[in-house]
Amino acid sequence: MADQQKKSLSPTQQQYQVLAGNLEPKRPLLKNIVMAFLFGGLICLIGEWVMLMYVEWFDFSEKAAADPTVATMIFLSVVLTGFGVYDKIAQVAGAGTAVPVTGFANSMASAALEYRSEGYVLGVGGNMFKVAGPVIVFGVVAAFLVAIVHTLLRMGGII
After folding, report:
1. Residues 97-129: pLDDT tens digits?
2. Using CA atoms, how far apart are residues 1 and 72, in angstroms rounded to an integer?
3. DSSP-derived secondary structure letter, 84
4. What is the model's pLDDT at position 125?
5. What DSSP assignment string belongs to 108-143?
6. DSSP of 50-68, one letter per residue?
7. Using CA atoms, how far apart are residues 34 and 14, in angstroms rounded to an integer?
8. In angstroms, rounded to a whole number, what is the distance separating the alpha carbons of residues 19 and 94?
9. Percent of the chain beyond pLDDT 70?
10. pLDDT class for 6, splitting at 50, 70, 90?
11. How far apart (Å, rounded) are the C-alpha atoms in residues 54 and 69?
């Protein structure tokens, strides 16, 4: 809890916060790290297999296979989310399922499923982009800043 919020609590509430913190079960940090590493690696391995499938079966170059590979991984993530499988995997894998493309697709699909009863425009569309909006904004800003640094380094003859 933030220091400012702690100051506004009564002594009884502060004692409760301390007690609750002491009784909270400790998280198995090493296990969580290992599971995230293994499942994140497995998702990336599946992505590599999908890319090799496009290269071998459809004669794509590795560069040309990248786009359909991303689309396939997004599709698989959304389908698994729709059937409730991705969430069960995430309970075991933790942060390992937050691999950028599949994790982002899962968060978008989850929001769409959660708010579908409110209608397609205000429910699905509005709430789905509460998750996507900040990611898109910060992604665009980061790409812009990296492009400026790259341009300055190139103009300076450093790269």
Report:
1. 888 789 888 888 888 887 777 777 777 777 777
2. 41
3. T
4. 74
5. HHHHHHHTGGG-IIIIIIHHHHHHHHHHHHHHHHHH
6. HHHHHHHHH---HHHHHHH
7. 35
8. 27
9. 96
10. low
11. 8
Chain centre to alpha carbon of residue 61:
28
Report the Cα 109 to chain-centroid distance in Å: 12
Name the pTM for this structure. Answer: 0.71
Q: How many Å apart are CA 78 and CA 70, to the nearest integer? A: 12
**pLDDT of 134:** 82
User: What's residue 18's pLDDT?
Assistant: 86
Q: Residue 85: helix, strand or coil by DSSP?
A: helix
For 142, the token pair is: 């980061």
> Residue 91 and residue 29: Cα distance in Å, rounded?
14
Identify which of 35, 44, 46, 50 has the alpha carbon closest to the alpha carbon of residue 90.
Answer: 35
For residues 77 and 59, give the distance between their C-alpha atoms in angstroms, rounded to a whole number: 25
- Do 35 and 92 meet the contact criterion of CB atoms below 8 Å apart? yes
